[in-house]
Amino acid sequence: MMNAGLDIVDLGRWPIHALDTPAGTAMVAGLRAAIADRGYATLEGFVLQATAAQLAAEVEGFVDRAWPGIDRATPYYGRMDPPLPDPPPGHPRLRTSPRRMAQIAYDQVPAGNGIRALYASAAMPAFLEAVLDAPPLHPMACRYQSVNISVMGAGGCQNWHFDGSEFSTTLMLQKPESGGDFECVPRLRGPGNENYEGVGRVMDGDRSGVVTIPVPAGTLMIFRGERSLHRVSEVAGARRRLLTIFHYDTRPGLVGSLAINRTLYGPRVEPQDETRGPALV
Length: 281
Known about the structure:
There is one protein chain. The chain is 22% helix and 20% strand. It contains six helices and 16 strands. The chain has a single domain (22-276), classed as q2cbj1_9rhob like domain (Jelly Rolls). The longest helix is centred in the N-terminal third of the chain and has 17 residues, at 22-38. By secondary structure, the protein is α+β, with helices and mostly antiparallel strands. Helix 1 (22-38) packs across helix 4 (123-132). The protein has helices spanning 22-38, 49-60, 114-120, 123-132, 196-203, 258-265, and strands spanning 40-43, 72-73, 97-98, 102-104, 138-139, 147-152, 158-161, 168-174, 178-179, 182-185, 211-213, 220-223, 229-232, 235-236, 241-246, 248-249.
């Protein structure tokens, strides 16, 4: 059944289980157009606000499991790809910005949680394939990276960065009292053009190209962040910012590398069988 695991989704508004119906076809066409135009699509009310609040309350019950990870990072998270030998001091490849956030790993989310059921549904990857015109997508086999919940309390933020994957899929569970805005500079770099000068200007505080994307609680967002520099601004107030991140890939059986997983989720992480697919970097 294509609607198995979709109990938390407003299927009347977002018929991700019925892509071959007129409503489903129109939905996919609209989302494709948005991504082609802006590099992202937001599905406001994907989860009703009352349902999002219930999910957030459940997460608050195990939020102490979140691991803070590193506190600063470059826009490339240290990756030097494409290779850049001996970058000069102050080069964007070497510059960092604050990262004050913690993450709850997949294995720390209780088995009966609606977030896990949605991730495991057959409808979600099929829906994303249609919207992104992508090859078949598969849930990760990684016990840590498959689904994450990003946790930001007062003072929390995420550094300016590009994504290492072609797209990301997130579900906002809870907005903070203020701050915690998703900010991006659309298509700041492109194939064969890293635009280091532009990246440096943004990190220097130039906001001329910065766009703030509204993401209310209950909103699913599909974002092509490989070419768009983006961050989360500083959170203020007592209410946490809670965001779910779903990871799918065209490679079946994908698991994360031990080094990356320990950086993201702490020393408790154990080795996994990485023979089923290439490790993430």
